[in-house]
Every structure is written in structure tokens, then in C-alpha cells.
Amino acid sequence: MSTLLHIDSSARSGGSISRELTASFAQQWQAKNPGGKIIHRDLAANALPHLSESLLGAYFTPADARSAEQAEVIKQSDALVDELLAADTIVIGVPMYNFAPPSTLKAWIDHVFRAGRTFKYTETGPVGLVTGKKAIIILSRGGKYSEGPMEALDFQGKYLKSALGFIGITDVELVVAEGVSMGEEAAKAAVADAQAKINAAV
């Protein structure tokens, strides 16, 4: 059975372009995979805790040597990793906040980037363990960062594509809706262009 991991990170529950576009992708994916399963992870409605000393300690302690506290604190991280590993396709909605993804999405990354589970260290360097998956990252941003003087401030899509590649997800497509705060017509055109790319990607 095919599985889609659908992640939203916008702080807005309504009026969010990234949510609108991820929902469109998920709807089309379900239509093409009627027997498929969708796991929806809303990082705003159910924010994950940021890294703590106890969680870091649990990450680097073998499972059979963890304390009761470590075994408890790592349960959520293990569940998130299991969701990621179970998925064939991942769609992530990512608005740009202060030139970067929301901190809620960074928290998710900190929970699922786990040595021994999603990557491993070898004599020749780290190797990703999350392979054979397709990721579609839907980016929304008020200004234009694909080119021109603001390009140097784009720590959104480039970061996520590099990060996912580190754990082995190298089939990554960036769908960008930018300039959405530059007037109604610009916003409509940006969303329409992104929607066309989503239609082609499903």
C-alpha cells in the first residue's frame, strides 16, 4: 500500500497558501492512489518540543541502555521516524519566515535526523538511510528570492533540499509560490504556477 506523509508547517490555519497547495497535492494523490494511506502531520496545531538535553542523551544511548526517562522522552521521535520511513512520498508545505522555514519544521527535522535510523556514519562519511522516496517541497514566500538581490537570503528551499539529501532523499522537487505579498495579481499568478507544477508532479 502506498503511503503519503503530508506535513504542514504554516502557523496560519486559514489563508495559508502552503496549506492550500499541500491539500491540493494530497487530494490528487489520494485520487490516483485510492487504496493509499495519508499520514497528516500538522506542526502548528501539534507543535513538537525542541531538542532537550535528555532527548539528545537518548539519541546517543543504545536502546537497551536507556534510562526509563530516556525511553519515555524518545518515544515521539521514534514515532516520527517510523512515519517518515513508512512513506513512499512526502509533501511538505513550507512558508518562509524571516528567510527560513518555520521553527516548527526545524523541530521536526531535529526529531527525525537520527544517527543509526535515518543516516549512519561510515569511514567515508555519513550515508543516508531514507532511500527510494520522492519528496515535494511546496514553498511560499511574500517576496522573490529565486533570483536577484534577495537570492542570497534564501535559506528555505536550498536548506531543505540539502537536509533531505543528507538522509538519503535525493528525489526532491521544489514547487515555489513566490511574490505572494506583491499584490493580488502577483499572488494569483504565483499560486496558479505552483498549482500547475503540483498537477504535473502528482
TrEMBL record:
Residues 3-200 form the Flavodoxin-like fold domain. It holds the Pfam family Flavodoxin_2. SUPFAM superfamilies: Flavoproteins (SSF52218). It comes from the Bacteria. Binds 1 FMN per subunit. Keywords: Flavoprotein, FMN, NAD, Oxidoreductase. Its EC number is 1.6.5.-, 1.7.1.17. FMN binds at residues 10, 16-18, 96-99, 140-143. Its cofactor is FMN. It catalyses: N,N-dimethyl-1,4-phenylenediamine + anthranilate + 2 NAD(+) = 2-(4-dimethylaminophenyl)diazenylbenzoate + 2 NADH + 2 H(+); 2 a quinone + NADH + H(+) = 2 a 1,4-benzosemiquinone + NAD(+). GO terms for molecular function: electron transfer activity; FMN binding; oxidoreductase activity, acting on NAD(P)H as acceptor; oxidoreductase activity, acting on NAD(P)H, quinone or similar compound as acceptor. InterPro entries: Flavodoxin_fold (IPR003680), Flavoprotein-like_sf (IPR029039), FMN-dep_NADH:Q_OxRdtase_AzoR1 (IPR050104), NADH:quinone_OxRdtase_FMN_depd (IPR023048). Belongs to the azoreductase type 1 family. Quinone reductase that provides resistance to thiol-specific stress caused by electrophilic quinones. HAMAP family: Azoreductase_type1. Homodimer. This is FMN dependent NADH:quinone oxidoreductase. The gene is azoR.
